[in-house]
Amino acid sequence: MFLYNLSLQAPTTISAAILGHFMGTKQQEVVVARQQRLELWKADTNTGKLSVIYSEDLFCRIRSIAPFRLTGSTKDYVVLGSDTGAAAVLEFDTKENRFKTLQYHEYGRTGLRRIIPGQYVASDPRGRAVMVGSVERARLVYIISRDTEGNVMMGSPLEANKAQSICFDIVGVDVGYENPVFATIETNYGDTDHDPDAEAEKLLVYYELDLGLNHVVRKWSTPISKTANKLIALPGSSDGPSGVLVCSEGFIEYKHNLEAAREHRVPIPRRVNPLEDTGRGLMIVASAVHRTKTAFFILAQSEDGDLYKITVDFAEDAVERLTIKYFDTIPRCASIGILRAGFLFAASESGSHQLYQFENLGDEVDMVEYTSTEENDELVYFQPHEMASLAMVDEIDSLCPMLKSKVLNLTGEQMPQIYSLCGQGARSSLKVVRHGLEVAELAVSELPGNPQAVWTVRRNINDEHDEYIVVSFLDATLVLSVGEEVEEVTDSGFLTSSPTLCLHRLDGGALLQVTPRAVRHILPDGRVNEWQPPQNREISSSAANSRQVVVTLARSGGQAIYFELDLQTGTLREYDERLAIGSDATCLALSPVAEGQRNASFLAVGCEDDTVRIFSLDPQRCLEPLSMQAVAECAQSVAIVSQMETLTLYVGLRNGLQMRASIDDVSGEIEDSRMQFLGSQAVQLCTIKVRGEEAVVALSTAPWISHVHQGRLRTTPLSYDALTYASSFSSDQCPEGIVAVVENTLRILTLDRLDSVLNQATIGLTYTPRDFILNDASKHFVIIEAEHGHYSATQFRQELLARGVVDSEEEAESAVLPPEQFGLVRSRSGMWASLIRVLNPFDGESTQIIELTDNQVAVSMATVTFASHPDEKFVAVGCARNMTLKPRACSDASIRIYRWINEGTQLELLHATVVDEIPQALAAFNGMLVVGLGRVLRLYDLGIKRLLKKAQSVVAPRLVSVIRPHPSEPSQLFIGDVQESVQLVTFNQNTHNFHVILDDTLPRYITCMHALGDGDTVVAGDKFGNLFGVRAPESVSRSLQTDPTGNRLIYEKPRLGGAANRWSSVVEYHTGDIITSIETCALAAGGREVILYTTLLGSVQVAVPFVSQSDVTLFQKLEQLMRERAPPISGRDHQSYRSAVVPVRCVVDGDLCERYFTLDHETREAISDELDRTQQDICKKIEDMRSLFAF
Amino acid sequence: MDKFGMNSQTEHWHAKYVGTGNPDISKHEWFVNQHRDTLAYYASDNSLAAFISIAEGESIARTKYNMLQRMQQPCGHAPRSSGTDS
């Protein structure tokens, strides 16, 4: 097995976000770190929409980022802390539109290690130095300056190490232009390691970089609270008092090393909650400092999601007062940032990321303030309110955290959908993920009939917006004017009593309308010049641009008439010769007019005889045939656009295929053609503009769009209804949109989000989902949800009543805050809120919710058919009561068996069977239910009152976490151990025992696995982000074929404390993120099966098995060359990254290979030369790997 | 000084790499070192930190903080008897 790994969706999490002027303009941008990707986003300050400018895969783990601006410069750089064992300064190059490494300095080994810096990066606010810190001991300070040529230079690292100290946070203190100072929170374990009576203390330490002596000194340290976790640097010099705020559990302190600086302390207000655990301090998780010319304030977010506004009153370097006040509540964030234009960027920890607009600064809202000058209680409270100061303006979908997924095709679409359990706590959801760009619908209006086509037209080339929308019906034409409102007009000069074939603006303010009976040239003054075809002949198809018009006549054996606009007379002049195509034409297209030229140089004609022909329109060789290409079916529609500086020919065929090829701009030869199946209907092509560039919309059973995205040509479906016809649209309200006709409606659509080719529909859930199964017949999901350490709404109400806080049920009801905004109410560790839900994924309706009471939690589930009831499917749910996570234990556990009632829309409890351990894994096996209880595998059959135990064996070294049945052998199963990898287990009917046949040589912490169809191979993911495949050795495989129960194998002598035989590893690959689900499925229509897996931080990837050895060799070579010639800008060695845990084996990284498209011409040429192929060849190979197997 | 310069090399390792063992290492010391390595990894790896936070129902920031906090004394107080196995 040799795999080609491709990302369908990069991780959607944001672990860190920073603001700055990364493009060097006045506009602020956001740089976000998404596991291994670095992205540059901009927020449109008018519309409040976020969009991605650039996204780059760094092939390393990004751990921290910081903005850095050299003194006197106007452009920010990004300082990157990663697992590369190096400090890197990246710049966004606006010319080449990509990130570039400015400076790079290696200091240690790669990987996530305790003493190798990279965990924290902090920059001096005045842009002179950066500090890179590790979790323990090491801290390096780099001086950054410009050399004489103006290049950014990074000095040698200066060590500021402190042995046996653990670092919690690092910030650069704003000290103006004095020596740069960095503040850290650290604890020292030197004493406590040796002296059992020693008390550890936490310190705030200032490290000063002495620029004169070029070394770093530990300048000052002061003891702080033992719960301190975060530092916020305050503006200094003339803008503020300098110093830092130390956030600890429950309060925030101001500290600074100046003599004059007095300490200030404010408590963090807590939500009013009568049931709160006062022993648990409130923690600040994210913060942002907003500076204006005259003042500054800080927004800090607590774990509950509450934002606090902290203001600092100061006079001449001395802080006089800290004030804290509740501001608003938004979902809990990993990072927040305040844009100067009045927006708050919130990178959510769970679910979609958001952009909020400030409506006020919280001054108008009457909330209690707490100040450091007054005596405050240790615990102070506030009552949260609905959003008062912020309004959400944009949301960016995120799948993170993605806990479980299934690839299913429930709706019978062309492509299967991915159903994913996502989110945590109150932000949990079931997401239906589809391949396709998200389409926003701006307007829908009804039309008097079913139109055939729609165009937009403007009178002059310089007009900003369209003037008319023209809709053509079977026997009429409707003209609408574009303005404040879209309404019908009659004085446009267009003929409305006949259908329209083609419509275009002509130079000189004229318009062109082609109807079956005439070519109508509508002059600016309203006069109409008409050309009419000969008697009994109709125009069958036509194409036009602002100077040229071509029409063909129906049933004429391919007669075409060519007109050119005569600029002097302002009339259309028929060309002397008629073009004889040779076969009846079905469709026409003119090539776009190249810059600096007047006329289009090519005409493409789709013919009845299953060919596409190219003719020259060059004045020297006018109407001369240039090339011809045979196609599989008659062409329905053709289009020529200029994409990526080449002429691209699109042909939509009647059998639903789309052909794309390039046209040589000198010879007119059709080259490099490729096919794609779009749907079962004939493909109609329409050209539109996307982000100012030409794009083609192909309409079949679904609409598709082919456009250039980040330097690459991409064909993606639009997640929308099938369209009849589409055109570009531009108006005041919608600068770049699409006008389309669907049945009897006219619709205006826009494509807002081009960066993600997957779109999601979200169905909200109550608690963190753990697992789900599908009822095949009723297409309903059963989902188990469980939340640790939180109250369910019912528990909370009951608790309030029981403690006498409220008197009635209604009062208790009103005390529950809406969890969508405020999250769930925290209870104690060891408390669970859990439920079983039956959900209809089509309308998002929960048909049944079974709340588990008595502190029970659902941990596992499976669909089972028992041999005694072969026609009925049962749902088994493993539950535990009073479950604790550390240590893993419960007071008692049970397996509940439910049967489906009401046509598979509800569950009914049949019985619950008590078991002695947490049933972590359940699976159907051999007409019975197999349960993983700790190390034990137990087999149950269905009884009337309870489950009946049939067999039990100890199989797993630690704990059975996953059970998967063998795809074909009923007596075999695969077991995933929580630490000890995968095992093949057989069941012996006679002795009623499970036997381990195969186990693994490596300890692997299995999270999910999937048995491939051959029955010998298992692919699985582990907790350290590896994808791996193991296969049964040939001898075992052969033996099991003849004897599936493994009777001979089980008597072999155990080897090295395990089974007699071991798996052999066939595939190893480090994905960099925990894999949560693996499945095999076919993604493309008619495509072969691929391995699809989803990861925790929201990425969707596929591993495509190679078919031919020659492809393997080619891609291996290509990967190797890409590693050498275009290494990732993070400086991480690609091979060592993919081998971070286990050396990579038999997997080619497709994401690296696809970077080939983005390389410059010379590098591409060099690589293709070494591979002995042409560039087009390699591009085609790489594209095919994606388009044939995935998308 | 031994023939191969072994001592000077191990001294160098001790200085350079935290947790380099010695023949007389106690069980407690060994455990503490193992735990610190593991905890530091949990705090550094975003994916694993998210995994743990979801299991525990905590925020990622809290999980990372807990890991760092536990690095102080991952295996409880140091044993009173020094040098031998605890």
TrEMBL record, chain A:
Entry protein name: DNA damage-binding protein 1
Transmembrane residue ranges: none
Record domain RSE1/DDB1/CPSF1 C-terminal: where: 834-1157
Domain RSE1/DDB1/CPSF1 first beta-propeller: start-end pairs: 14-375
Lineage, uppermost ranks: Eukaryota, Fungi, Fungi incertae sedis, Zoopagomycota, Kickxellomycotina
Cellular component GO terms, alphabetical: spliceosomal complex
Molecular function GO labels: nucleic acid binding
Gene3D superfamilies reported in the protein's UniProt record: 1.10.150.910, YVTN repeat-like/Quinoprotein amine dehydrogenase
Localization of this protein: Nucleus
SUPFAM superfamilies with a match to the protein in the record: Quinoprotein alcohol dehydrogenase-like
Keywords, ordered alphabetically: mRNA processing, mRNA splicing, Nucleus, Spliceosome
Domain RSE1/DDB1/CPSF1 second beta-propeller: 440-751
Family membership: Belongs to the RSE1 family. Belongs to the DDB1 family.
Gene Ontology biological-process entries: mRNA processing; RNA splicing
Origin superkingdom: Eukaryota
One Pfam family in the UniProt entry: Beta-prop_RSE1_2nd
From TrEMBL, chain B:
GO (cellular component) term, any one: U2 snRNP
GO aspect biological process, one term: mRNA splicing, via spliceosome
InterPro entries: SF3b5/RDS3-10 (IPR009846)
One Pfam family it belongs to: SF3b10
Name of this chain's protein: Splicing factor 3B subunit 5-like protein
